């Protein structure tokens, strides 16, 4: 017997009147309607069958809800578009797309775009619901428009403070609260307190004045964008390393010997789905990494204490590994290489002759390219200007192929 289909119907603050005929028919003929109290209250008493609350906590309770009620014609109510940060996406992950019928409703973001006259295809969207405000940082780019979903009354004030701290204090912020409902309010942030459920529409200022220019998302941020103690992979070398690491959105990087965290942070800034783990033995540097990650908009960067290779045990397998410290350490490169699957990239830097010799040995065994990067920056010399060379960096970059998968 084919497994039963579960229907997920989106419903907005305009309730029953705002539903499509298809959604009304599905809910009316449901044996069981599951939803949060707010959504269940929007459905007339005579429509559909038995009402059941959604389990709390939601995810662990969903299999039992579906197991108990799917055979009886289950309709789950979602707020707005079920596939946009909604329970529809959760159910599809649990049951597979073939078992879930989704009946969408305009999301709050669609309603906001409609009220503002902003084309959605030219807007960046971020959810700050239960997530750090710092996620906004990478989206703050001159002239860009951002819609931020929030769920607490302090959000507008916090976001304006965050904008000011980055030089974007002149950016107009509009609050769109309780969209689609009788209490809908759209107005400038700060004009009056806003309700819990709101969208903040940010028009990023173009001219950042003395704070400019904005920080790009292309790797190679200036060194002083990071708090550091001198142990930082310099901007030019970092940009080359990240290019060789190939930061594919959604993939996981191990940043081994993370120092200030700059490589992992730049890897994650490329795309919101990108993930990184910073492995660093020194506690003061791990604290600094966390501060840098928050300030640069990637608070999800994970830090792991301890030296490699011991600290690597049990970590989720990486798609790419950067070794910024420890190439001469026993088993460090071997453990990083072994953790990669086919297609995985490894980039290792060394500044000492011993480190360089170790990398030359690895290249002889495994292939890849060795590159020597020398950067000189002009600086004052008396009343003149002279080149000041930084220590040259030897960089080994290699991609694992299928024939090396078990090495
Ligand atoms: C040159 S710094 C790395 C700089 C870093 N890529 C950045 O941009 O901030 C080298 C770091 O490697 C760390 N380290 C040295 N040996 C290590 C090992 N075996 N495992 C993990 N980290 C190590 C040091 O504590 C130091 O913070």
So, the CATH homologous superfamily of the largest domain?
A: Vaccinia Virus protein VP39
Average pLDDT figure: 95
Total of domains: 3
Please give the CATH class of the largest domain: Alpha Beta
Beta strands, count:
19
Any idea what the CATH architecture of the largest domain is? 3-Layer(aba) Sandwich
Largest sheet: 7 strands, mixed
Beta-sheet strand percentage?
Answer: 15-25%
Helix content: 25-40%
In the CATH hierarchy, the third-tier topology of the largest domain is known as: Rossmann fold
Low-confidence stretches: none
Ends apart, CA distance between termini: 46 Å
What gyration radius follows from the Cα positions, in whole Å? Answer: 26 Å
Which oligomeric state applies? single chain
The strands making up the biggest β-sheet line up spatially as: 13-12-11-14-15-19-16
**SS field, number of helical segments:** 11
Which structural traits does this protein have?
407 residues, alpha/beta, Cobalt-precorrin-4 Transmethylase, domain 1, 3 domains, five-stranded parallel β-sheet, 11 helices, binds S-adenosylmethionine
Briefly characterize the structure.
By secondary structure, the chain is an alpha/beta fold. 26% of the residues lie in helices and 24% in strands.
Describe this entry's structure for a reader.
The protein is α/β, with parallel strands linked by helices and 407 residues long. The chain has three domains: 6-106, Cobalt-precorrin-4 Transmethylase, domain 1 (3-Layer(aba) Sandwich), CATH 3.40.1010.10; 110-211, Tetrapyrrole methylase, C-terminal domain (Methyltransferase, Cobalt-precorrin-4 Transmethylase, Domain 2, 2-Layer Sandwich); 223-404, Rossmann fold (3-Layer(aba) Sandwich). Helices cover 26% and strands 24% of the residues. It contains eleven helices and 19 strands. The strands form four sheets. It has a seven-stranded mixed β-sheet with strand order 13-12-11-14-15-19-16, sandwiched between helices. A five-stranded parallel β-sheet has the order 3-2-4-1-5, with helices on both faces. The longest helix has 14 residues, at 353-366. It is flat and about 80 Å long. The protein starts with 5 loop residues before the first strand and ends in an 8-residue tail after the last strand. S-adenosylmethionine is lined by residues 228, 231-233, 256-260, 262-263, 279-282, 285, 307-308, 324-326, 329, 332.
